[in-house]
Amino acid sequence: MKFINYVAKGNARLGVFLEDKQKILDINTANKELPTDIISLIEGGFLPLVCETIKNGLDEQTLISPDDVLVAAAVPNPRLIVCVGQNYKDHADEQGAKYPKNPLLFNKSPWSVCGPYDPIIYPDNVEKLDYEVELGIVINKKTKDVSASNAIDHIFGYCTFHDVSARCAQFGDRQWFRGKSFDTFAPIGPYLVTKDEIPCPNNLKLWCKVNGETRQQSNTSNLIFNVETLVEYISHSMTLMPGDIIATGTPGGVGVFMNPPRLLNRGDTVELEVEPLGKIINKVI
Description:
4-stranded antiparallel beta sheet; alpha+beta
């Protein structure tokens, strides 16, 4: 199931994208018992009711064209975004870095989140802006000290995640939080795809293009620490809650490590996707 957050007539709404109809079902309009935001849906365990609502038949009046709405972030208001650095073999290789013994964790401000088609704002005090395509994991329940063997039980679904980075701040500060957390530095979406549609998250193609030129192209099979290992490791350090996001790292091909570096400029268009989770398209302004 592909959940999609959107804004229609000034109101934030939650829907399910129906592939066969190429339309969005507004779930709250279809069933008033269902919430209008994704975190309430995850916390309340409403997924079975959504399935039942769809099976009971759809009123055409509850279906909306994606072209008629503003698509919002797959998780518009996460409490926590935990990111993983140097987690692809090809990304570590391009830096000449040894593979880390444990996941390297940092975080992004939840206020950096924006929609999948929103522009990225190039801050005036930034000189080196970069792109990173990533697989995002969204947690479905309180998660603490879980094992890798049951980690999938604690996942609601997956999304495409764009970890925009101000390299000058990231490397200049000698820690990564500020350089990763400017406003609009975390486009997410367009869908939050439930885990039943992604039986093997550790074998997904992902890619990134800048102005139509492929810069990153890899597979989550190249992760150093896979999805289950990350959930285990992070949950042994901190409690994860419904709607929290784990950004699993980016593959090789980022601009800062090219020779010479090829960073983003104002006016560039960045397209990226984790297949089959949907494509993000951001213009740099």
